[in-house]
Amino acid sequence: MPFGRLNLEDFPDSAYAHELRRGVKSMRFEAPLEAEFLTAHLERVRLRVRFWFALNVLLAAAVTFELVRRSGFWNVHSLVSLGLFLPCAATLMWLSWGSQYGRFYIRFAPLLVALLYALFSVFVASGLDEGHFELLGPLAVILVAAFFFSGLLFRHALAVSVIMLGAFAASAAVADLDRGMFVKSLVLMAMTGAVAAFVYRDVEQSYRRSFLESALINQLVGLDALSGLTNRRAFDEHLLRVWQHALRDQRSIALLMVDIDHFKQYNDQFGHQAGDLALRSVAQVVKGFARRPLDLAARYGGEEFAVILYDLAPVHVRDTAEQLRAAVQDLKIGPPAGGQGGESREITVSVGVGIAAPTLGRTFQGAVQLADEAMYEAKHAGRNCIAVKGAEAYELLETGAFSSPRDKRRLPSS
Q1: Which of 398, 401, 410, 306 is nearest to 354 (CA)?
Q2: What is the residue extent of each domain of the chain?
Q3: Are the CB atoms for 53 and 92 separated by under 8 Å?
Q4: 349 DSSP β-pair partners
C-alpha cells in the first residue's frame, strides 16, 4: 500500500507502517502505539476538556442549588446531587487541570463521565415528568459533548451515550412519564447520539491515520541512513522525553554506549565498504536489544552506538550489556573475503553502562557522560568487555568534568 510516494512494504520494522498497512478501522493500535497515541490525543484535547468540565462544575452547582431550593436538603435528588453529581463534576475538572492529567485522566474519566451524565439523564427524566421540557436541549448538548468535549476515545464515548440512554429510559419508566413524551424524547436522544457517534468515529479515524503518518515521517527523518538506527538528533529528543517520563514516575534509566574496538584499523585495512558492512551488522545486533516501547537504539556517531533501557533492574541491565557484547563477538566479523594485510582480529565491542535515577536539577547529559566514562573504562580494561557505573556514581558525577582515565593518557584509536 503506498503512502504518498513511499511504499509501506519498504518499512517492515516500523510499527507505524505496520498499523497503516493494517488500517485504522479497528480504532485501536497495538499496546505500545496505543499508549503513544493516547498521550498525543490527551495533549491535543486538553484545552477543550478543561473548558468543558469547568462549565460542567457550574452546571452541576446550578442543578444542585435548584434541587435543594425546590425540594429541600433531604430530598433524594438533592442528596444524590450533593453526594455524587457535584463531586463527580469537580473531580473531572480537577483531573483535567491537574499535573497528573496525562497519567490519570484516561484511566478514570470514562467511568466518571458515564456516572455524571447518567445522573443528569435521571434528573432530566424527573424534570420532564414535572413539565420542564426545556431540559431536553441541555441533555442533547451533553450527549454530543460526550463525544467531542470530554476527551474520551470513540469506544468510551459510545459507551457513555448508551449508558445515558439507558439511565434516561429507566428513570422515565420509574417516573411514569407520559408515553408520547417518553417516545419522542428517547427518539430525539437516540438520533442525536447516532449522528454524534457517526461523525466522531470518522474524526478519530482521521486523527489516528494522521498520527501514524506524521510519526512515520518523523521516524524516517530521524533514521541514520547507513545503519538504519535512530540518528543522534532523534536519540537526544527521545532521551529527553524518556528522562522527563522517568522523573515524573520516579523510575530509572540505563544508557549503554557501545563502541566498536579498533574500528579505524579495520576500516583502513579493508576499506570503507567492509567497514560499512561491519557497522550495519553490529547495528542489527544493537537494535535487537531495544524492543520495549520506551527503549531505543541509535547510532551515536562514527562507530559508536547507544541504547536507552527504561526502568530495568541493574542486574538485568548488566546482563543485557553482556549479552550484547557476546552477540557481537558471536557474529565473528573478520576480514572480508580476499582481504589482505596485517592483523586480522574479529570485530568486538566495548560497552559502557550508566544507570541514573532522574532528579530535579539534573539533566540527561549527565547520564550520557556517565555511560561515556564507563565505556572508556571498558576500553582501558582491555576492550571486548563491559563496565558499569550505577546510580551512586551518577549522584557524585560532576557534569562536564570528564573523570575517565582518558584524561590521564590518550587512548589508541578505538
Answers
A1: 306
A2: 2-218, 229-407
A3: yes
A4: 260
Cα-based distances in Å from 397 to 118, 180, 257, 381 = 56, 76, 17, 21
Band (pLDDT 50/70/90 cuts) for residue 269 is confident
SS3 298: strand
Mean pLDDT of 224-235: 87
Amino acid 207 reads Y
Axis-axis angle for helices 179-221, 31-71 (nearest 10): 150
- Quick count: other Cβ atoms within 10 Å of Cβ 130? 10
Helix (H/G/I), strand (E/B), else coil: 157: helix
DSSP summary character for residue 294: T
**Where do the DSSP E strands lie in 164-295?**
253-260
| Sign of CA pseudo-dihedral 152, 157, 159, 160 | positive
pLDDT of 61: 95
| C-alpha of 255 from chain center | 20
- Rounded to two decimals, the pTM is 0.65
Average pLDDT in the 236-260 region? 90
- Set 303, 304, 373, 377: catalytic member: 303
Question: Measured at the alpha carbon of residue 88, what is the angle toward residues 84 and 90, in degrees to the nearest 5?
Answer: 125
Q: What is the mean pLDDT of residues 98-103?
A: 87
In which region does residue 308 sit, left (phi positive, over 0), alpha (psi from -120 to 50) or beta (all else)?
beta
- All three cell numbers of 45, joined, read 484535547
Residue 176 predicted with pLDDT over 60: yes
Give pLDDT, residue 394.
61
Contact 16, 212 (CB under 8 A): yes
d(CA 308, CA 36): 17
Q: Are 164 and 146 in contact (CB under 8 A)?
A: yes
Residue 402 is predicted with a pLDDT of 54
Q: Which amino acid is at 406?
A: R
> Strand, helix or coil at 414?
coil
313 three-state secondary structure: coil
8 Å CB contact between 283 and 299: yes
DSSP letter (8 states) at residue 230: B
346 is catalytic: no
CATH 3.30.70.890 assigned to domain 229-407? The reply is no
290, 284, 344: which is closest to 317 by C-alpha?
A: 290
